[in-house]
Design brief:
Length: about 110
């Protein structure tokens, strides 16, 4: 499992939801190759993701979690796609495994 992340707030603001103050980032991710064809990336934004793609609707102040299937196949219509669907159970086991790799603050916020 590879874990990475970024926490950054522009000087002069203490409110992480204040995007007017400039750059803000607060996320952590874990990536794992589950088998020969499946690479999954879990991303947690404990205060909402501000610079997001289509998988993260804007929700400032609300923890967000997405499990992405990462593909490099030329036939794939997207490089990444969300595969987490708690209502059907899809991706829940894999997301739980990757969530355990995150640091305590991120794990607690996105659990």
């Amino acid at each position: 499992v590879v874990v990475s992340g970024l926490t950054m707030r522009r000087a002069g603001t203490l409110d992480p939801r204040d995007t007017r103050a400039g750059l803000h980032a607060d996320w952590e991710m874990a990536v794992k190759r589950f088998n020969e064809t499946a690479v999954l990336k879990l991303v947690c934004c404990p205060e909402g993701c501000f610079k997001q793609g289509t998988m993260f609707p804007k929700a400032p102040g609300t923890p967000q979690l997405v499990l992405m299937s990462v593909s490099q196949e030329p036939s794939s219509d997207r490089f990444e796609r969300n595969v987490l669907d708690p209502s059907s159970g899809a991706g829940v086991e894999e997301a739980s495994e990757l969530l355990r790799s995150l640091s305590d603050r991120f794990r607690d916020a996105c659990a």
